[in-house]
Amino acid sequence: MTVALIAAVVIVATSNGAPAAGQQGPESANNGIVKDQMLLAQADTSGQKKTRAGKKRPLVNVDKNGVILKGYDPVAYFTQSRAVKGNPMYSSKYAGAIYYFASREDKAEFDRTPAKYAPQYGGFCADSVSKRKLSDIDPNQFLIYKGKLYVCTSAPSLKEFSAKPDENIQAADKNWELYQLPSSPGFRRYFGS
Known about the structure:
Blueprint: E1 6-12, E2 37-43, H1 74-79, E3 87-94, E4 97-101, H2 104-112, H3 114-117, H4 126-129, E5 138-145, E6 148-152, H5 155-163, H6 165-180, H7 185-191
Antiparallel strand pairs: 1-2, 3-4, 5-6
């Protein structure tokens, strides 16, 4: 996965020497580069679409159809304590992702309070986020902790994340904020976007 926004600072300098034959000098109107001028380049490499209002959608781990959790039912993690494959017949959209449910009842429960059932960190591996990485998940590797759903890449990553959950959640929460910076008004103001 790529990061939603990559910012690079490029320092561009012109030479102090005389222009070569056939070139215009620094006083030319065509010379738009100023010595030691700092330029900011921003590239959106996420491939995520923008909403109608022009704002970026939240960063979420979805497949090519926009489905999160590889189609597993987020409510079942809480009610059945296991991963249950959802049915596209029962689906809802929330925070830039499509969720599938195993039953009409699970869909209705999710629709009442979607934030309660949505996976943390946009459905990316919680252990990886705690290490400043974005990784895909295995929906069968999950942890419900303090009423929140955390999914991981593998059994070893789940074991590592679960060993010190408070510490790892604190690190992951802090790192997840880094992926949210482009939507922060302070970030946009500072970088002039």
